[in-house]
From TrEMBL:
It comes from the Bacteria. The chain crosses the membrane at residues 243-263, 420-441, 447-466. Residues 1-25 form the signal peptide. It comes from Tessaracoccus oleiagri. Residues 31-217 form the DUF2207 domain. It holds the Pfam family DUF2207_C. The keyword Transport does not apply. Residues 304-526 form the Predicted membrane protein YciQ-like C-terminal domain. This is Predicted membrane protein. Keywords: Membrane, Signal, Transmembrane, Transmembrane helix.
Length: 604
């Protein structure tokens, strides 16, 4: 995430997205009546009156709070966004509620907070809000051939809304009307034309559900008014080599590269216990001397067991300071081997089901129990096909975050590996902004190239940030043990395997072999042992239709890991698509899919 944020800053891209919120429980006073009346003037400006009742008898509050989007990306050209203007409203209440108004604006939205902080309502109150809105009308739309008023009345609410009516009229009668709701604005709702006005009605709009209304007028009704669009700034698009300043740019470039190299060398070293055999720690009461060394160059001895108490996922994260997808997959297989779940492949060996065994999970580490909770969500079984749904998009990110936290909890790293490079990232962003700023500032003097070394330095800092995770002396000792165990898994032959009483060594160490990338070799060694009648694997955690040899066992787990990673990627993509679909694609409003703007209403 940090790296993506850096790249976004370096390229100067500002992402504005107001997605439709999923259905959720109400967190604000319900609205028992909501009438919206829109009258469009000849110039396309909408005069809007919102008249509604908020029932504070069910959920007390000081008053309504409304939020509206003022910017939205053009779905056809991501270099531009649309701009909408909501005027400062006039507020009144026929029931005598406080109508104090505060307005907060940001780069993408405006928030209207109505009421007094010291006055709490406990009964139903009526409110009337009048304001003007511009930027919503699309003249002579190429698909519908109409002037379209295409507005997201709501992009998601905190309140439950019942008895909702939206009426849209203009200088001439409406020719076409439509209304859409649903998380992707794909469910049509009641829309009709009455006395030349578009009327949309819903009996109920649950919390989190959006609402889009569309009214089509004859082309030219609003004099060809155009939506206001502004260009998204792109510094890199303005950066081109100049004809002068090469000496200065060259000197700065050499300095930037040299500085990055020094930082790279410094960050390659971890804290270690000096004077002790790699992999050992001071005895109790002994104070070890600590210094800096490049742990990648320290020789290690063969270890016949993994670091004591360290799970495969933790070992994988310790080795490269990165919680990868394989670390999460190996964690699941390790949980299966330890009896917490069973893995069930289909006949093709490409699709899998996971089933909880019911074993008490109180002894699990926090990231392990959280992983199981996010996968099963109270169910006993879960298929990979189900995990592809957007509801599971936090499984992988949550598991990775848990592994990073485990590194800090075990004191194997001086800082969380995920955020250890944040300081370098900040400097990289600053350097990138300086370089881009100089490029723009010196554009007319043909010295834009002077800004390039700062961008080179930014890139160097960015790369250094990926190496900023420094292991503690304890972490370096565990790393030496992990590498010694990796050496054992990579080199041990069938007659060199160290067996442990009561433990299926093959299954127990298979997740570690996956982390080290030697699962196939580990499977071949035990396949040989089985052929010679010297070993029998315990396959109770894998419910296959037929006998599975150790070699195929390892191959099958590769398939499980790939299937799980694919499901997680699909889930994340499905969630992103659902979020992105809440914005307008630039198509006709009569196709649904969301309109322009977007608001919400709740209480405070």
């Amino acid at each position: 995430m940090i790296r993506r944020a850096f790249i976004a800053a370096l390229l100067g891209l500002l992402v504005v997205l107001l997605p439709a919120l999923p259905a959720q429980a109400a967190t604000s006073a319900p609205i028992t009546r909501y009438d919206v009346d829109v009258n469009l003037r000849d110039d396309g400006v909408a005069e809007v009156v919102m008249d509604f009742t908020m029932d504070f008898g069910q959920f007390s509050g000081r008053g309504p709070i409304l939020q509206f989007s003022t910017k939205q990306y053009d779905g056809n050209d991501r270099d531009y966004w649309y701009n909408f203007e909501y005027s400062r409203p006039r507020v009144s209440s026929s029931t005598g509620a406080r109508t104090d108004l505060s307005v907060d604006t940001s780069s993408t939205a405006v928030v209207w907070r109505i009421g007094n902080e010291d006055v709490v309502n406990y009964s139903a109150q009526d409110y009337r809000i009048e304001f003007t809105l511009s930027g919503i009308v699309v003249s002579d739309h190429p698909e519908s051939g109409l002037d379209e008023f295409n507005w997201n009345v709501f992009s998601g609410n905190d309140s439950d809304v019942t008895d909702l009516t939206v009426t849209v009229g203009g200088p001439v009668p409406v020719e076409r009307a439509a209304c859409f709701t649903g998380s992707a604005y794909d469910q049509q709702c009641d829309a009709r034309i009455s006395e030349g006005r578009a009327v949309s009605q819903l009996a109920q709009l649950p919390p989190g559900q959006p609402l889009q209304v569309v009214a089509g007028f004859p082309a030219g009704t609003f004099g060809g008014v155009e939506q206001v669009r502004t260009r998204v700034p792109s510094l890199m698009s303005n950066l081109t080599p100049g004809v002068g300043g090469y000496a200065v740019a060259g000197a700065l470039g050499v300095a930037a590269i040299a500085g990055s190299a020094v930082l790279h060398r410094r960050n390659k070293r971890d804290l270690v216990y000096l004077g002790l055999t790699p992999g050992t720690t001071p005895t109790r009461g002994e104070e070890g001397r600590v210094g800096l060394q490049d742990t990648s160059k320290i020789p290690v001895a063969v270890q016949f067991q993994p670091p004591k108490g360290a799970t495969p996922g933790e070992v994988g994260t310790l080795i490269d300071a990165t919680a990868d997808g394989i670390d999460v997959s190996a964690t699941l297989i390790d949980l299966a081997v330890r009896g917490y779940l069973q893995i069930i492949p289909d006949r093709s060996g490409r699709n899998f089901t996971m089933r909880l065994t019911g074993k008490d999970t109180s002894a699990l580490q926090e990231f392990e129990s959280t992983l199981l909770h996010r996968i099963f969500k109270g169910a006993r079984t879960r298929t990979m096909e189900e995990l592809r749904e957007k509801d599971f998009h936090t499984v992988m990110s949550g598991a990775r975050s848990g592994l990073y936290s485990a590194m800090v909890h075990r004191r194997w790293f001086t800082k969380n590996p995920r955020t250890a490079g944040a300081g370098y990232i900040s400097l990289a962003v600053l350097s990138a902004l300086v370089g881009a700023g100089l490029g723009v500032l010196l554009w007319n003097q043909s010295l834009a190239l002077v800004g390039l070394p700062f961008l080179i330095l930014a890139l160097g800092l960015f790369l250094v940030a990926g190496e900023a995770s420094q292991r503690t002396a304890e972490g370096s000792a565990m790393l030496a043990q992990a590498r010694g165990f990796e050496l054992y898994l990579r080199t041990a032959e069938a007659n060199q395997i160290k067996f442990e009483e009561g433990i299926d060594v093959f299954s127990r160490y298979l997740p570690y072999a996956m982390i080290f990338g030697v699962a196939d070799r580990w499977g071949k060694v035990f396949a040989q042992l089985e052929q010679e009648g010297r070993y029998q694997t315990d396959t109770r955690w894998l419910l296959a239709d037929a006998y599975v040899s150790p070699y195929y066992f390892a191959s099958l787990m590769h398939g499980f890991s790939n299937s799980f990673s694919s499901a997680m990627s699909a889930s994340a993509a499905s969630y992103a698509a659902a979020q992105a679909s809440s914005g307008s694609s630039g198509g006709s409003g009569f196709s649904g899919g969301g309109g322009f703007g977007g608001g919400s209403v709740g209480s405070w």
